[in-house]
Design a protein that fits this description.
single chain, alpha+beta, three-stranded antiparallel beta sheet, 16% strand, globular
């Protein structure tokens, strides 16, 4: 069984297989989680796959995002054009998705925190109310709307990633007073074209989306003989 015990071995496996989900899924032995030594999974003392995500993206040979059944994973640049070609073919963005995509495209890339600030309406200025209960009720409604809007952004971002419109360019961390990174990395979103150039789609020019789908299915069937046709179809999308 492959092992992703260090940065290099993980990157090599992604490039060899072309597709690799981050988490366990319906297909056994097909995730970074299953191939990672236990002592490196969520370890506070040593770096592991969580810390390697950004550097692997930065190396320039693998793309990352929520691309496998709404969950995260990697795809090599050899296979990315086929995935984009197939996923984009029948995608119709909702109003929210189109607005978020336009904001990302107009800035080149944005941290998730920046994107939410640009997309969410500003908090209304505080006004005095004659009755405290009215003010409290209004604040509760505002918080509920804000929470729903944030959830809506996450859902829209996931759909944009699943349909090949947006990927994650990096993860950026907050730093303590000693300059040490801490906490969860904040995702920076961009488009495949902004990340890799418009020529990213050159390999599929002249091909039908169905041809790209069939090539991915054939590759994954050889790679994952334990998977059923339905599982492979769900993986490809």
């Amino acid at each position: 069984m492959p092992s992703t015990g260090n940065f290099d071995s993980l990157e090599r496996l992604i490039l060899k297989w072309g597709f690799l989900p981050f988490f366990k899924n319906d297909i056994e032995q097909f995730s970074i989680e299953e191939f990672t030594p236990e002592e490196l999974w969520f370890s506070p003392d040593v770096d592991g796959p969580w810390e390697w995500k950004g550097p692997i993206i930065a190396a320039g040979s693998c793309a990352y995002g929520k691309i496998f059944q709404n969950k995260a994973g990697f795809v090599s640049l050899d296979w990315l054009p086929h995935l984009l070609h197939w996923r984009r073919a029948h995608y119709h963005a909702t109003k929210d998705e189109a607005e978020l995509l336009q904001i990302i495209m107009s800035h080149g890339s944005l941290l998730s925190t920046q994107l939410k600030k640009l997309y969410l309406p500003p908090r209304p200025p505080h006004t005095r109310h004659n009755r405290l209960s009215k003010a409290v009720a209004e604040e509760d409604r505002r918080r509920q709307r804000s929470h729903q809007q944030k959830e809506g952004i996450e859902t829209a971002l996931t759909k944009l990633q699943m349909n090949g419109m947006v990927i994650i360019a990096d993860f950026e961390y907050r730093h303590d007073r000693q300059g040490r990174p801490y906490g969860w990395g904040i995702a920076r979103y961009t488009t495949p074209e902004a990340m890799y150039g418009s020529e990213i789609m050159t390999p599929v020019q002249g091909l039908s989306p169905e041809t790209s789908r069939d090539r991915m299915m054939q590759h994954l069937h050889q790679l994952l003989p334990q998977a059923t046709p339905k599982q492979l179809q769900q993986l490809v999308g």
